[in-house]
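Reading a protein record of the kind used here takes little practice once its layout is understood. An example of such a record is reproduced below.
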Amino acid sequence: MLGEEVIHVFRAIENVGSPGEIKTSFITLQLPGKPKNEETIPKDCPPTPLNITVGRLGDIAFVGIGCEVLTEIGMAIKAASPYKYTFVITHCNGATGYLPPKHLYIEGGYEINSSPFAPQAADMVVKQVVKMLHELAN
């Protein structure tokens, strides 16, 4: 699937001339955590660190997230990106676990139970990534 998406986007890129300078940014977020395989989140649960790397080359952006995000998160990042083409890459500079969107915590399941992140973490990641992408555009 990822390979197909890369080929699909690459074929849509019309101008591969000089894209200008490469810009990058990196941050380690301290996100609200939760114990794995537990449904309740204790008040004293430590945060879970997550590495985020963004880069840009012309109108192409790359987002590297140190965990496995569920589809809705990648789609939200792409929709809010100021770039014509945005690639979201998971397991980049880390493999923290699953990062599900908040609305899926009600359903439970493997990704939710095994996730080290509290429900609000995904929204925080999307907001931070979009902020970083906009900062690179300036």
Summary: The chain has a mean pLDDT of 90. The chain has four helices and six strands. The first strand starts at residue 22 and ends at 31. Helices lie at 2-12, 71-80, 110-114, 121-137.
